[in-house]
Amino acid sequence: ATQEEISKAYRNLSRIFHPDKHGNGENKQKAELMFNRTKKAYEVLSDPHQRAIYDSLGVKGLETEGWEIVHRTKTPNEIREEYERLAQEREERRLHQKTNPRGNISVHINATDFFSRYDDEYYDTGLLPSIEVSGMSMSQSIEAPLSRTEIATLSGSLHLQNGVGSGNFLLSGKRLINKGWFEVDCGAGNGPVLGAKGSRNLTNRIFLTGGTTFHFRPNAIIPGLTGTTAIQLDKSTVGYLTYNAGLQNAMSTVVERNTEKYHCNLTITLGIPHCYIAASYTRKLLEQGLKLRVALKGGSFGFLSECGAEKKVSKYSAVSATVCVGVPSGVTLKIKIIRSTQTYLFPIHLSEEIIPAAIFYATVTPLLTYFVLKKMLFDPMNEATKQKNIEKVKETNSARMAEKRREAESAISLMGALYERIRKDEFKSQGLIIVSALYGKFSDAENVSLEEADDMGFVQQNPYVIDVRIPLQCLVKDSQLILYSSSKSELPGFYDPCFGEEKQLKIDYEFRNNSYSSVFADSEPVRLPVVMDDSAQ
């Protein structure tokens, strides 16, 4: 809207709600309330800075942020709740930033007895196939910021495979320096370990990372060396060249591309004991919270292919399933559960050879399990959480909702004369006449009404729907009704009858002696009359 249109609308509303035009008593008090609200809106929209904030962030953007992001009309209890919530969120962020805990747990399960059962004439294998945990590994790390440029990290891990266990811990100190960082490590596992590594940016597009380690064994000291050169090829593509010497010798080249829609990489490795080529592609479906991934890997060790999906089930949680088929590894199903910074991985080895039945069940079982859990667990939990939050918001804002309702009723009571004049003019010109207008939450737009029957059959007022026929008729100008793409609850004579719920606006109207009906979403723009042919009337 131009500034001229805003000024003209302000003058029109001021004439409607000016207290001097409504005598004394209750109507004058209602007029003063609406006049002050109209004046406040005009002050915001007349100031370029405040209007820019409002256009970007709405009403909340006009108020200060952080600890002061509270409505000036809130009650002391509401303000106290707002402070407590912000304090809790700030404390959680502070604690997480200080420790940054990360953990991984992997449980290796051997289920090959399902598809390739071993028959032993001297040993009774039983009626049911056996499932055993063949290995387990756990790792955990926490960080402790010592200063703005120094961080200490403590990490450890435990590994168990076929009854043989091992473990290690590592203490690292990292310091940020000009254009890079430097780190010193010390730890113990299969003997003491000392190491140092660092990174430095050579240019805006090239950086180097290198390090050395010394493993102290009873009869020898085994040195290790690693170095990586990375080049930013374009905005989304990076190339890496890495060399490792020591316990394992290898040289690898990696090209990685990461965009909003997909992620892919290509790796070529030459080393001892294996050389291989690997490629992977991940498609990101952000709106569905879904990632689809395929990968191929082949070399001197054999061949491996992977196909999987990762689904986000809540703000901090995700689950994924990957089917791995290869030679000589056979068929493996990997189930991964991610909760914030903790990861739980369950590789289930189904067969040592490529068996079609194992591939089929590894593909179908996770899909069926997910849909069953989604229907019986995830959806009810999310819906219960949503309803709980809505009820909490309703309770917190009950006083504000009641005030908004009183404002809307006051505005409607002051629109009587204007409503009659506009309706009379539109009737004479066969223009736009609002016959009925309902706003609120309703699933069946054809049968929505202001009244509904309860479980006992008694008719009562529908608390989720309000009558907005008079306010909408007052907004008709030159036989047209134009509403822009924003919530209708802020219009004069409107209020939000179901806070936090999806709302609709149903309008039954007459134009040129023909009847029409239209339904709009809450934030959908409205332009009436809708141009349509005779068959759509």
Give the overall shape.
elongated
Percent range for helical residues? 25-40%
> Helix/strand/pairing class, anyone?
alpha+beta
- The stretches of 5 or more residues where confidence is low (pLDDT under 50) are 64-76, 532-537
**Count the strands?**
25
Mean pLDDT: 84
Number of helices: 8
What about the largest sheet?
17 strands, mixed, barrel
Q: State the end-to-end distance.
A: 31 Å
Kindly estimate the percentage of residues that lie in beta strands according to DSSP. Answer: 35-45%
Rg calculated over all Cα atoms: 34 Å
Pfam families: DnaJ, DnaJ-like_C11_C, DNAJC11_beta-barrel
GO biological process, one term: cristae formation
InterPro entries: DnaJ-like_C11_C, DnaJ_domain, DNAJC11-like_beta-barrel, J_dom_sf, Mito_inner_membrane_organizer
Protein name: J domain-containing protein
Describe the model:
- By secondary structure, this protein is of the alpha+beta class.
- It contains 8 helices and 25 strands.
- The strands form 4 sheets. It has a 17-stranded mixed beta barrel.
- A hairpin with a 2-residue loop joins strand 15 and strand 16.
- Helix 2 packs across helix 6 (398-414).
- One of its GO terms (cellular component) is mitochondrion.
- Residues 1-58 form the J domain.
Compile the SSE list and pairings.
Layout: H1 3-17, H2 26-46, H3 48-57, H4 76-99, E1 102-110, E2 132-145, E3 150-161, E4 164-177, E5 180-189, E6 191-201, E7 206-217, E8 220-232, E9 237-245, E10 249-258, E11 262-272, E12 276-285, E13 290-299, E14 302-312, E15 317-327, E16 330-339, E17 342-351, H5 356-396, H6 398-414, H7 416-428, E18 433-440, E19 451-453, E20 459-461, E21 465-467, H8 469-474, E22 481-483, E23 504-511, E24 514-521, E25 526-528
Helix pairs in contact: 1-2, 2-6
Keywords: Chaperone
GO cellular component, one term: mitochondrion
Domain J: 1-58
